[in-house]
Amino acid sequence: MKKLLSSLVLFLPFCSIAQNQIFDRANVTGNMETTIQYLNDDSTIGAFAPEQKAVMNSYLNVNYSLGKFRTGVRFESYLPSIAGYPAFYSGTGIGYRFAEYSGEKIQVTMGNFFEQFGSGLIFRSYEERALGLDNAMDGARIRFSPIKGMQLKGVYGRQRFNFDDGKVILSEGVVRGFDGDVNLNDLIPSFSDSKLKVSLGGSFVSKYESANNDTLIIPKNVGSYGGRLSLRYSKFYINGEYIHKENDPSAQNNYIYNSGHGILINMGYSKKGLGILLSAKSIDNLSYRSQRDVIGNQLFINYLPALSNQHTYNLAGTLYPYASQPNGEVAYQLDFLYKIPKKTKIGGKYGTDLHLNVSVVTAPVQHTSNMNFNVDRIAYEGRPFDGSDSLYNFDLNFHVSRKFNKKFKASAHYFHFVFNNEVNTVTKKASGYITSDIGVIDMQYKINRKHALRMEIQGLFTKQDRGNWATALLEYTISPGWFVAVMDQWNYGNSTVKDRLHYLLGSFGYTHNSSRFMFTFGKQREGIFCIGGVCRPVPATNGLTFTFTTTF
């Protein structure tokens, strides 16, 4: 026993040294975001405060890594959730947790994870916090790179559905998928120096959900599959993906037995000072969810990217934004960027940037001849890129930006929209097509090394809906930490005089290292908030908003 105790006494210092070395290699990182609102009733703009008056969204991510091992959790709190956020977010709890091992050729993840196959047409698990969208997988994922130029991925699990009283509710359906990518230039040694760059990919995804319907035969397993190709030669490139989905009767498509397809093609040319992109998309019956009776933005297995610019200016981005249609659409887009060379008469000392973007979305043609719906419940025949004359959305926008000297730069923007309010209903004040024109002037002046002033003037002109709008923004920045801004939106063209309202909003904030504090006070009009073709309504509010973010 004395020998054993002596050995332990001698061994303990070495244990302490080893433990210190392990912790020296460990790393803890994370970030936090908190938004608190204190809301007031305001009948003039249709704003209503909850009983609690104050509402909050808060998130804390903590990640721990040691060597090839990594783990993490996300704490979430909605007490209750902020205005306009989906009602199924409530309570406080752990909303995301995972453990992961990453070796030289293999990576294994257990728990929650986000993943995407190709462009996302067949599978995309992701989070967009501003939209209240989170379809994180809960299960297992394997990434395997057996040789250079090849990557294989497999996923298996259920999707996050609700966050109810601090507990994650998962989908009833189970999602399984496999994806592979091959880069021929890396895989074939003799092809490695070729100017032609080629990569191939393919995916298969299926879902299982039990079925109990007295009137319809519902498939319990629904598969989808497809492939993609990417080519690049010098300054030219083209890539495309095709996805086929088996018949998937659901609430989204009124329980028809049609199969579905999705095609996305991008081709372009780019060099210094010039970029041209042409895109085309054809979607038919591609709503793919892990729970067939759900509608809205929840439980989508796949993602349908929008072929239009994501506008950031207030009037262009929130009054008539277009959301992708999972039941079907045919869309085309042209994106043209050109920089007029510097030190020329037109380009000026620093050059001038031009950007033209045009997109058009139409309804697909649904061929119904020779259909016998009462026998097979196939409602129509859909063909790729078979678009109709029924316009869903037209978006033309042109942008010019120029730096005039070391202190002053400005940009001018023009938007022309033709929006089908019957397809994407964003207002009850109009029906059919809403045509609008928007102009924006954005100016920035650098007073000195630390002080800068920015001003926006916007105008929207339409004869439909609520008539014309004007927006003015003034922002003052004191580097490196402070800023203050005031914005006024005025619906001066409303046909109802009492509704020609001002929406005055003030904000100020401070940034210190990786932490940021911001206060916003005033009125926010009702609108639609979209990111990448996915949208959620934003109600009118009147009150104080505090936002805090930090990383560590």
Structure description:
- With 552 residues, the chain is mainly beta.
- 7% of the residues lie in helices and 57% in strands.
- It contains 4 helices and 31 strands.
- The chain has helices at residues 2-25, 184-187, 314-318, 373-376; strands at residues 27-39, 54-66, 69-78, 91-102, 106-113, 115-117, 123-125, 127-128, 133-134, 137-144, 150-164, 167-170, 174-183, 196-208, 221-233, 236-245, 260-271, 274-284, 328-340, 352-367, 381-403, 408-420, 433-446, 451-461, 469-478, 482-490, 502-512, 515-524, 527-531, 534-538, 541-551.
- The chain has a 24-stranded antiparallel β-barrel. Strands 6-7 form a two-stranded antiparallel ribbon. It has a two-stranded antiparallel sheet with strand order 8-9.
- A hairpin with a 2-residue loop joins strand 2 and strand 3 (69-78).
- The chain is globular, with a radius of gyration of 27 Å.
- The two termini are 48 Å apart.
- The model is unreliable at 1-5 and 7-18 (pLDDT under 50).
